């Protein structure tokens, strides 16, 4: 191609990647913001097995599931269906209470998750699992 001054112009054969990079950065930001919101499941604060005991002013409620799948709050036996109502009544007097869940290792995973679900449905924010220290 010649223009009026006799200078030849060459077509640019390189791809301009700037718009592509801009779009990719925007998508990266969108995924970084939305990824934590897409996580499903129950939040459980598991203490490290080598950590020292945590001192708290408010004593946590201990829920125990024995090897026969019986459920106890402190030392009182109740069913899984009664758990939410019992925790709801306890939360009225202690709104920021924490719960520690102890389950025998032979209890099926589904039974433990059912109890954890009832605990979370009652509005308990602080839920921990009690384990034996690692050797």
What are the main properties of this structure?
135 residues; 5-stranded mixed beta sheet; 3 helices; 5 strands; rod-shaped; alpha/beta
Give a quick summary of the entry.
The chain has 135 residues and is an alpha/beta fold.
Low-confidence stretches: 39-48
Characterize the overall form: rod-shaped
State the secondary-structure class: alpha/beta
Round the mean pLDDT to the nearest integer and report it: 78
Q: Report the C-alpha radius of gyration, rounded.
A: 29 Å
Largest sheet: 5 strands, mixed
Q: How do the strands of the widest beta sheet line up side by side?
A: 3-2-1-4-5
Helicity level:
25-40%
SSE run: HEEEHEHE
- Tell me the number of helical segments per DSSP (H or I, 4 or more residues long): 3
Gap from first CA to last CA: 81 Å
Give a count of the beta strands, DSSP E runs of length 2 or more.
5
Strand content: 15-25%
What does this structure look like?
The chain is α/β, with parallel strands linked by helices and 135 residues long. The model is unreliable at 39-48 (pLDDT under 50). The protein has helices spanning 18-34, 80-93, 109-121, and strands spanning 61-65, 71-73, 76-78, 98-103, 126-129. The longest helix is centred in the first third of the chain and has 17 residues, at 18-34. The protein has a five-stranded mixed sheet with strand order 3-2-1-4-5. A hairpin with a 5-residue loop joins β1 and β2 (71-73).
